[in-house]
Write a structure and sequence with these properties.
- With 269 residues, the protein is α+β, with helices and mostly antiparallel strands.
- It has a single domain, classed as Deoxyribonuclease I, Chain A (4-Layer Sandwich).
- The strands form three sheets. Strands 3-4-2-1-14-13 form a six-stranded mixed sheet.
- Strand 1, helix 1 and strand 2 form a beta-alpha-beta unit.
- Helix 3 runs parallel beside helix 5.
- The longest helix is centred in the middle third of the chain and has 22 residues.
- The chain binds one DNA strand of 15 nucleotides through helix 1.
DNA sequence: ATGGTCGCGTAGCGA
């Protein structure tokens, strides 16, 4: 089975590109971030027409995540396990932002726990938004420990908004003050790996230089000024079954593209 | 140091 993550940066602007990507690459499970839509107005019908089941966790205008499963390939609708991590947004009285959706994905070859996440950006640093990011990462670590304890095949993936190492960014100097690569952000990410989770995308090149995001500004795509912030973490039950991993880089170069490229993993399960 | 570009929703915030 193939499990993918794609920060689409707005479903209203991205629907044609999303449908195209689904049809061309046909992931068994697709995790979407930044749908920027409420559940009621998410265009599920057009995605279902391709044979996908759709589960959304959205909010108005910002954030929002979704999980799709390939009904045509014999996958059941995503079975919801948990939405949200119970962390209040950084603004007073704002409530919780829509950033986490955990499901069981069951297909012909078995069940995988899939946690789709959109981690807070955390800029500007320092400040309340950065503190919110760190609190969110602490809650994520707690939740991942609970998943670990279930000893099920599990994949935790999405836009982590963390550049893990210096060789995961086009220029350390250009990004030095960004929340995405502060020592606290990196430390929290490193603790997840220290807990035993495998960074699947890192295996593409252990020396770095793999990008999943290119800014819209300053000709970043044309200059290949990118960085790696979309990650796929595997429980031990999945790490042994990893068969292939990749970045659909060409999709970043298309008309009206997202600023992220899709990232995927093939499991022998 | 600044400005550079998008999306949502239709001003200004978030990235």
């Amino acid at each position: 089975m193939k499990i993918a993550t794609f920060n689409i940066n707005g479903i209203k602007a991205r629907l044609p590109r999303l449908l195209e990507w689904l049809a061309e690459t046909r992931p068994s499970v697709a995790c979407l971030q930044e749908i920027k839509s409420q559940d009621e107005t998410f265009p599920g019908n057009e995605i279902e027409a391709l044979g996908y089941h759709v589960l959304t966790h959205g909010q108005k205008a910002f954030n929002g995540v979704a999980v799709l499963t390939d009904g045509k390939a014999g996958f059941e609708p995503p079975k919801e396990i948990q939405r949200g991590l119970g962390i209040e947004g950084p603004k007073e009285g704002e409530g919780e932002q829509a950033r986490y959706l955990e499901v069981d994905a069951t297909g012909p070859d078995g069940t995988v726990r899939v946690a789709c996440l959109y981690l807070p950006n955390g800029n500007p640093h320092p400040g309340p938004k950065f503190n919110y990011k760190l609190a969110w990462m602490a809650a994520l670590r707690t939740r991942m420990a609970a998943i670990w304890a279930e000893e099920v095949p599990a994949v935790v993936l999405g836009d982590f908004n963390v550049i893990p190492e210096d060789d995961d960014v086009f220029s350390v100097r250009a990004m030095a003050n960004d929340a995405l690569m502060q020592p606290e952000s990196r430390g929290a990410y490193a603790r997840l790996l220290g807990d035993g989770w495998t960074d699947a995308v890192r295996t593409l090149n252990p020396r770095g230089g793999v990008w999943t995001y290119w800014d819209y500004q300053a000709g970043a795509w044309q200059r290949d000024h990118g960085f790696r912030i979309d990650h796929i973490l595997l429980s031990p039950e999945c790490a042994d079954r990893m068969r292939a991993v990749g970045v659909d880089k060409a999709h970043r170069g298309r008309e009206k593209a997202s600023d992220h490229a899709p990232v995927w993993l093939e499991l022998s399960l």
